[in-house]
Amino acid sequence: MSSFLAFLSSIRWQDIVDILINSYILLRVYVLFQGTNAFRVLVGITSLWLAQEVAASIGLILTSWAIRGITAAAAIIIIVVFRNEIRSALQVRNIKAFLWGFPSREQQTPIDVIADSVFQMARKRIGALIVFPGNQDLGEAVHGGIPWNGQVSNEMLMSVFWPNSPVHDGAAIIEGGQITEVGVLLPLSHRQDLPSEYGTRHRAAVGLAEAADALVVVVSEERGSVNVAKDHSLTPMQDSRMLSQALKKHLKMPDISPVRQRERERLKLAAAGCISFLIMAGIWFGFTRSQDTIIALNVPIEYVNRPANYDILDTSVDEARLQLLGSSALIKSLGPGQVGVRVDLSKAAEGRNTFTITQADIILPPGVSLNKIHPASIDVTLDIPATKELPIQVDWTGRLPENIALTNVSVSPETCRVVGGSKTIEKVNTVYTSPVRLDTLTKSGSSTAMIVLSPPSLKLAPSCSERVTVHYRLEEKTPSVKQ
After folding, report:
1. Where do the domains of the chain lie, and which CATH numbers do they carry?
2. Is the pTM of this model over 0.85?
3. How far apart are the C-alpha atoms of 100 and 27, rounded to whole Å?
4. Residues 292-351: pLDDT tens digits?
């Protein structure tokens, strides 16, 4: 329990936002692409990716490599093969529908498609005979059928019973949303009480209904009427909804109202949202909690909360070497600024201070943990800042030619104000310029030189220039006379 509470306490609000944003993106993919072939293939690719991660985690190197290659190829195939479906799903009228609209999709069931198609054929005076088997086998009652196994659609039914079709005079058998056989011959009823206007189609429908527990829909091409034969009765259908209810009752399917259908859609979206959140939370947990990669980084040390009356005079090190542990995905994505070492100087005193670097001083992204750090402690020397006026002296280097003498030197300005730690600055009495070479001087003149401060912790006051002008006078030596 304590470990679980520790895990919860380690989750930042940024992690929650990260999971929610990606969960919403996944939900939008589902909303935009649900019901399409591209979505089903996308689910397959996701399953392959999960299988690849599982294979990699348990050390199946060859299997992981093979699945990774298949996944990469499938991702390209889905873009090429299903580009039209993807374009249709992404072609929305406004940004609202694309980003946060949840359209209520009125999806027709196969029963609704059949009912609408039947009455469309009735309006066009196209005769039809459609059989819906019950529990009994129709093998002994019907014969002469041609295997079809086509998905039920309006176009499919219209093509089967179109007058020019070679199988339009026979019956079509529909099972499980598919047209399994066409051109089927049904047994004729020999009842004498049937109305005289009923022809062969109606007698065939009644004949099969008498021989088995099937339901038969018959469309009259002369009158454009629709009837349903079931048991020993022939019932006229007034509209597609009445036919749909009769079919659902025969197939023992619940008749869902539009209100209930909308409620089911909302529940479906809510379930999809929960699943998206769980998937992204699992991926986040896998990325951030996996500890399969170690990396060493040299990170500059940042000193914060330095007391206002102190300056940092010296430090034992300028950077720390961190050995980090985490998932390979997170380790590879580490960028500048994501890892840092900050030492708090708020409790430091004048002189030398030793600080032990703890976990609290290390800045790490979530999911990356500290394995080792070197050095474990650092020394920081603080001093009170002071200002001192110091003379400037030229740093000569090299030698003048033998016949030339340096007779006069002046520096402008002659002094400069230096800022630094009081203990450091009291030991410094002179500042020097950058080296000026004597062997390049041939006549009197002037040159500029930089002021060089030593130790480097010293700084020039803002009012002082970093450059000075060196004026020098050269004279030729008088040759000595030998006696």
Report:
1. 11-104+266-289 (no CATH), 110-250 (3.40.1700.10), 293-383 (2.170.120.30), 385-476 (2.170.120.40)
2. no
3. 10
4. 678 888 899 999 998 888 888 788 888 999 988 877 767 777 777 788 899 999 888 888
